[in-house]
Structures are given as structure tokens and as C-alpha cells.
Amino acid sequence: MSQLRIAVIGSSGMLGQELVRFCTKRDMDLHSYRGCESLDVTNSDAVSKAIRGFDVVINSSGYTDVDGAESDSESAMNVNQRGPKNLAKACLENNALLVHYSTDYIFNGASIAAHRIDDEPGPCNIYGLSKLAGEKAIRETGCKHLIIRTSWLFAAHSKNFVRTIFRESQIRDTLKVVSDQVGRPTLCCDLAEQTLSLLASSAHGTFHVTNGGSCSWYEFAKEIISLMGNNCIVQPCKTSDFPRPAARPGNGVLDLGETIKLIGKPRDWNIALRDCMKELINESKMNEGDSTITPKHSISKNA
Predict the structure, then answer these.
(1) How close are the terminal C-alpha atoms of the chain, in Å?
(2) Segment among 55-59, 109-113, 286-290 with least mean pLDDT
(3) Residue at 229 is within a domain
(4) Domain range spanning residue 47?
(5) pLDDT of residue 294
(6) 105 catalytic residue (yes or no)
(7) What mean pLDDT is reported for the chain?
(8) pLDDT tens, residue by residue, 130-176
(9) Residue 195 burial (CB < 10 Å; 0-12/13-18/19+)?
């Protein structure tokens, strides 16, 4: 592993930062591309030049605005389908392995069982369609690939659900959070570590990688506030109470069976959340002297 030349695409993103951190800790031969400003994955010529000489290309970039994709499907498809296709073609030319991240949103969430790797996909929104198109484009090139489907990413940094609840619960008395969407929260540093474990195991094909356990967004928010020791009240609501441009799958739980067979069982999401919250709380204490406390007031919030 340490002898491999690795390129991380999208290293400024929430997951990309953790991938760079873990690769650096393991003293890997690493080059990172922060985002479109350093490498536009939709430009095939730029991609072809950028990844020459690499053994592994990890693509953590992507169009992630789920609601925005409904009104800008062209951008979503361009980044999430054309981008991976360009990377896959370049990897094929260089005999490199492409590691690419996909999502539980390729499934419609109608099933009550966890989604197996070989279950028939059926996205319920444009974002899911674009990610599924990216998967198909990679496979069609015939390049060596490792497609990792994941869900509900969070970290102590960057924009994500945990940081939103952490912030909002300090300025609001009440939050309303949907309770009829269920999935597996995934701490980005755990996903990065499991990615490297899969690489070390010479994994290829498609795998589901998340933290263990499952919960609703409501249960997720309750646990965040409990760890904060906050008095903010979280109330459950239905998805239909807060309609949004893009539909969401009711059940986004991914089956982890094949991944567990290869690299072992991941720690549960609530254990991972504790580490994340410790980091957030410590950061908040350090910044306390510079922050202004805003009086709380009641509001209905679909976080």
C-alpha cells in the first residue's frame, strides 16, 4: 500500500479531507486535487493529463446538492456521470484503480429490508439518477474499479447534519426533524479508514460502507442534543410536513454483509458520533470567547 502512488480528487471536501489525513498518516505517496479549481473532472483532456502515473485514483468529488439537482439536472449529470466516466477512461489507459463513492439514493427506499449490493436500483430523484449514471459509466469503461456506496456523511468539520443540529440547537428552543426517513449515519474518518482497508484487501467491484446500526433523522438529532447536554426539544415530524424539491427514500439502510466479510464489522454510528461531538464541543469551547450568544426562540425546523 505505501508503495502505491495515490491521487485524491476533491480533497477539500468533507470526505476528501479525511482521506488525505489518513493517507498522510500512513506515509503514502499522495497527490491531492482540491476541487474544480485544481482539476475539472468534466474536462477529459485535463483528467487524462492529471492522473498519469498514479496507481490509485480516489474520487471524492461530486455534485451533492440534492434539491438543487431537481432544477439543474444538467450540472448534476455533468459532474456525477461525465466526471466519473472521464476518470474511468483515464484509469483504463493508465491501468490504475478508480475508487468512486456512490450513495443510498440510487435506491427508492420503498423496501423495508436493507438494500443489498445487487438489489435493483430505482432512484426517486435527479441526484440519485446522476449517481447511478456515474456507477454505470464506470463499469462500462471496463476499468479496474471500487465503487463504494455510503450514506448520511458527517464530520466535525464542513457542512453536514451534525454541525447544523449542533448550531441550531444552541439558538432555538425547538427543532422539528423528520422521523420517517431511516438510514445509516457515517463518520467520514471511519469511511476513509474503511476505504483504505478495502484497498489493502485488494477489493474491487461494488461495496456498501457505512457505520453500523441505523436510525431516523429524528433519532440522530436526539442523540446529538443528548451528547451536548442541551435543553433544546426535538419533535418528530413527517417528510410530507416539510415538502422539498427532491423526494427522499424512506429507507436508505445499506446492507453491509459483503463488506463485513472482507474487512470486519464497523463501529456503530452512535459510538462514532461521540468522537465527533467531543471534537465539536472542544472547538466550541475554544471559540467561546469570540462568539456572540443569540437568545433562543421557538421555531419549527426541518433539519
Answers:
(1) 40
(2) 286-290
(3) no
(4) 5-159+186-208
(5) 34
(6) no
(7) 93
(8) 999 999 999 999 999 999 999 999 999 999 999 999 999 999 999 99
(9) buried
Q: Is the dihedral of CA 169, 174, 176, 182 positive or negative?
A: positive
Q: Is the pLDDT of residue 287 over 90?
A: no
Spatial distance between the Cα atoms of 224 and 39, rounded to a whole number of angstroms:
36
DSSP lists the bridge partners of residue 200 as none
Domain contains 121? yes
Number of domains the chain is built from: 1
Residue 62 lies in a domain: yes
Contacts of 243 (CB under 8 A, 6+ apart): none
CA dihedral 118→134→139→255, nearest 10 degrees, is -20
Q: Is the pLDDT of residue 107 over 60?
A: yes
Report whether 130 contacts 80 (CB < 8 A): yes
Catalytic residue among 33, 101, 127, 218: 127
> Is residue 64 in some structural domain?
yes
Find, among 92, 18, 75, the residue nearest to 276 by Cα: 18
> Phi-psi bin for 269: left (phi > 0), alpha (psi -120 to 50), beta?
alpha
CATH number at residue 112: 3.40.50.720
> Which among 122, 152, 149 is positioned nearest to 208, based on CA atoms?
149
Question: What is the mean predicted confidence (pLDDT) over 65-84?
Answer: 98
CA distance 238 to 178: 5
Q: Residue 232 forms beta bridges with which residues?
A: none
CA distances from 2 to 56, 187, 262 (A): 12, 24, 20
Amino acid at 13: G
